[in-house]
# Entry
Amino acid sequence: IDMFGKPVETLIMQTYERRNLVFSDDLFCDPAWLILLYLRAGSAPLDMAGLNTATGVSVALLRRWLSVLTMRGYVQSVDGSADSEHYVLTEAATGKLDQVFAFTPT
# Structure
């Protein structure tokens, strides 16, 4: 879904980054949302280091939220093993994000 010639998730991430520059990056925290956004925007699976760099969230917190997102069926490891550190969105998560970005109710 495009707005102003860019995917909505890209605009959201850019707004998030600008917000952190203006207010400071320690004022707001929404790790689950950031993980979903960066996995959605990426063209390849992201590993823990990539998610850490992109989101600024600590590895320990990323692990906890990835566990929650995996248990809820929104994120999975690329090879399906529990110890894999490369993650992708599931179809369920992609569908829900499409609803959010389309601004349509469920």
